[in-house]
Structure formats: C-alpha cells, structure tokens
Specification:
Length: 297
C-alpha cells in the first residue's frame, strides 16, 4: 500500500501541495469541456442501451439514468424493498443465492451488495436477462451468473442454495403449486424469500385438520384459502393466471414444505425449509432424471 494512503488528511494535503487548499482545489476542480463531452457521450450511450432493452419493470438508477422513471408503481422495486430489507440477513458472506424470475436483476444485485459469495439469476425471458446483465455490469456486479431457465426446470441445476428468491412469479404461472414443489424438492437449501400479488380477503380463517363431506358452507368464507383463476387478462397482462388471497398464499407455502418465519411486508414472506405435509407418501414433484440406460425415469 502507498505511504500516501496511510497519512492523515492534513498531512496528505501538506505533502501533496501545501495546506492552502490548493490540493483540494485540484482534486475537486470542475470537469473541462473534453471530460464533460466524454461523460455525456457515455451517458448517452447508456441511455440508448436502456431504451433499446425497454420496457423495464424494475426501475433502477444506472449511472444516473433511470430505467423506468414512469413506473405505475412508482420507484419500484426500490421502495418496496426498503420496507422489508431490514428483515433480511445483513451479511450473506459465504452464502449462495438463486434468484428465480430475476427480471432486471434488482434483487440479485442487492444480495451481492450484502456479500453473497455466489448469485445465480435465472429467467425464461431473453430481454429481462439482457436488462439484468446491463444493470449488473453498469453497477459493477459483473460476477453475477445469469442463465435462461424456466422455473419448472430448476431441478436441472442439481444443487441447493442457501437463499432462494421467488418474487413476483407465482401468479404468472399456469402451474403455481408445481413450481413451489419443485423449488422445495430440488433447490431450496434453507431460506426462501417469496412474494405474490394477492387479491380477495386478507383474513386468514383458522381451519381444522379435516372436515366431513357434508361441510359446504366453509368454502363461502372469505378467509378460506382461495386461488382465483384469470381466464383472460388482469391489469392488461395475459400472463396473470392465478391470484391467491392471503390465506391461500400461506397455505401453499406450508403445503410445499416451507415454514413461514415472518410476513415481512404485506405480500412478502421469509420462509425456511420444513417437513412437507404428507411427505411419507412420496415426493411432491420429481424432476425427470436420466437413468443408467440413458432414458428418463
């Protein structure tokens, strides 16, 4: 390390130009025309790349350029993240993270900020992956791994992660419970950070272990777990297939083998792997694996 870096600020100023403020004036001087031109050129190039990859769902500040300044949810997902971020581990040193449905990579980058040793971000959309690569490189997190992968294929990864992020994906799936089962069976090693859009009652009705066949009134209760099917579109988005109420969200997580540690924001849950209900009858979802003869089991 340079001896200059070990000097106290006042001594550093003296050895580099006296104590009359000339050193500070030199390092804080305004950019000249050439430097401003270069900076504006880079910003213009970055802005063009951002527009080329648009529209963006994650609003992020990339070198002073916002990716989705007119987002209908405001500064999303930054504002949402700040509400539940204090409930997440501050230090992820030595931990592995899998971000399923990473979109533009906001949460992958945030986990790297917390020191995660490895972050693998997957998405089935090429444009989102291109956005995520641009964002991570611009912000200096170019060691994040990106891969095109569908949630139904997570078993192909053949490894478990300390933290799995599954935010804003469930309601876009035609087979949401299968996705949760596959995550639990194949890639969740400990923690799950989960979010789903919810509609309907926010009340959670306490339920018994079993009910007789003649019980029918129960299903009319607003707080009974309900998964609403969207046949056409919701919010102008044809990929919004299923929208659970709160009771259903929590029941699906438990049914797939996740215990809810905390509900850390209105629709966000921090979960931990647990024993899956009825596990004694076999796995909920098994990813096809090659057998000894090269076929599929």
């Amino acid at each position: 390390m340079s001896d200059l870096l070990l000097l106290e600020p006042t001594k550093l100023i003296r050895c580099c130009g006296g104590d009359d403020g000339s050193f500070l004036k030199r390092i804080n001087r305004p950019m000249n025309l050439a430097e401003r031109t270069i900076r504006l050129g880079r910003e213009s190039e970055l802005r063009a790349r951002i527009e080329e990859l648009g529209p963006w769902f994650h609003n992020m500040d990339l070198g002073g350029v916002s990716t989705a300044p007119e987002h209908f949810l405001g500064d999303y997902p930054t504002k949402k993240f700040t509400r539940f971020a204090p409930h997440l581990p501050d230090d992820l040193s030595g931990k592995s993270v899998l971000d399923i449905g990473c979109n533009a990579g906001f949460y992958s980058i945030e986990m790297k900020r917390r020191g995660a040793e490895r972050v693998l971000a997957v998405d089935s959309d090429d444009r989102y992956l291109a956005q995520a690569r641009l964002a991570s490189e611009t912000l200096g997190f170019d060691d994040i791994e990106f891969r095109k992968l569908d949630v139904y294929d997570v078993g192909a990864l053949c490894e478990r992660f300390d933290l799995v992020i599954f935010m804003g994906v469930l309601y876009h799936l035609r087979h949401p419970l299968l996705a949760l089962d596959l995550i639990r069976e194949h890639v969740a090693g400990d923690l799950l950070l989960f979010q789903s859009m919810q509609r309907g009652s926010k009340h959670v009705l306490p339920l018994e272990e079993d009910y007789p066949f003649e019980e029918t009134e129960l299903f009319f209760e607003a707080g009974y777990p309900k998964l609403h099917f969207v046949e056409r579109r919701y919010a102008h988005d044809w990929t919004n297939w299923w929208v659970p109420n709160r009771a259903c969200t929590e029941a699906m997580l438990r049914s797939s083998g996740f215990s809810i540690e905390r509900r850390i924001e209105e629709e966000v849950y921090l979960c931990r792997t647990a024993e899956r209900a009825f596990a004694q009858y076999g796995p909920a979802a098994v990813y096809p694996a090659s057998n000894a003869t090269g076929g599929n089991e």
